[in-house]
Structures
1.
Amino acid sequence: MADDLIHDQSAGIERLLEIMRRLRDPETGCPWDIEQDFDSIAPYTIEEAYEVADAIARRDWPDLEGELGDLLLQAVYHAQMGAEDGHFTFQSVVTAICDKMVARHPHVFGDESREKSAEQQVSDWEAIKAAERAGRAQGGALDGVAVGLPALLRAYKLQKRAARVGFDWPDTGDVIAKIVEEAGELVEARDTLGPEEVAEEFGDLMFVMANLGRHLGVEPEAALRAANAKFTTRFAGVEAKLAAMGKTPEGSTLEEMDALWDAVKAEARGSA
């Protein structure tokens, strides 16, 4: 019967759950899968989430379908290990997220009015989340911001939390002034202090840059991903122009590559 389920392409999530159960079977499963635990699988989970975001950024919908499947597999993997250890099951995970979504959307699933602004709905959402944190004995404003988030994204979320309780600069100009201050401290550390102090001051500057993004309504992680993509595209353009000249980056001067960089930028702007 189990084999029938595994080969039944119409069986949906039950098929995937059975596949994972079989992979983790201590007697007949896959040796690699049996050896894994929450800690060893967590990096794959993060990687798959980024691959989903990458497929979306590229507007590659067939690839997105596959990447969403890979990400779903990660949830199933963790749920199977949770069931084996007696912590939770896939069904309890589903029940928990369903209950959370219903509780957090009383204007859809309850008797509250839907006639609210987007800002009011966000405010209500945060109030509900704050009550949930209080119920979990997470009393601090910064409690619950996951340590495992990418550092830039975590900085952004920490600052959003602090701003909700009034710990924030009143306007963007104050943030920019702080950036100038932190940049000066970084230069001073570079010139007079050691590598540990330089790293600390660099971190402070990055933290304030994330805060500037929040004040400007720019999510810094997404902005940096876009900048990375733009740099990759433009540098590939430089390499292509060099190749047309029979040259490589290694065999070129900085001045040559900088001139080609400007040409690639100009072409990109002209085609926009």
2.
Amino acid sequence: MRRIPALFVAVAIAEAVSWALLLTGMFFKYVVVHDEIGVKIAGPLHGALFMAYLAVTVVQARAAGWRWWVTLVALACSVPPFATVVFERWARSRGLVGDGASRPLQMTGTHRD
């Protein structure tokens, strides 16, 4: 269970990097050289990391006890470019990812003082 937060962080960052690669590939395809090689490589890579992010997010949400709306926001962040990293940083700053020392946004609704 301690590896799940690290996996979540790694996949969130990798998904954002794959977005950058795909956007770069699209730029070269449509603007610079009109060659599809970048998209052919980055497209499937991004697709796989997109799916991995969705799966790892659900696992992380269950393990950390995220509220439903936090999970929904995390999943929605898989769509816009680089939003997975923004969400990961936000979640980490609120104790939702990491050592779990404080979890103010838990599903259980209990408050810890």
